[in-house]
Amino acid sequence: MGVLIVEEAAGLLANPQSYVDEARLNEALAWLREYAPVVWVDHAPYRPFWAVTKHADIFAIERDSELWLNEPHSIMAPAES
To answer: What are the protein's UniProt keywords (predicted)?
Structure first.
């Protein structure tokens, strides 16, 4: 597992065109779930964000608002806004 592979797979999450090729996106998500289930995504033009790709992890995070924060930016927004 190399850094470039992680960055490429994570970068697909921040690229709207990635969602057109569902098979490629699903392959990247499966890879991330196995090798980097929580990954920092830092791709222009959006603000950096943490991507959590495992179902159980997402549920655990959603249930614990004392520990996890999705504010003030809970959506993907351009870095300059």
So the answer is: Plasmid
pLDDT in tens, 57-66: 999 988 998 8
pTM, full prediction: 0.77
Q: How many Å apart are CA 25 and CA 17, to the nearest integer?
A: 10
Q: What are phi and psi of 37, to 5 degrees?
A: -65, -25
Q: What is the pLDDT of residues 3-41, one digit of tens each?
A: 568 888 888 999 999 999 999 999 999 999 999 999 999
Say how many residues make up the chain: 81
Residue 15's region, left for phi above 0, alpha for psi from -120 to 50, else beta, is beta
Q: Is the dihedral of CA 34, 55, 37, 30 positive or negative?
A: positive
Residue type, 76: M
15: helix, coil or strand? coil
In eight-state DSSP terms, residue 19 is: G
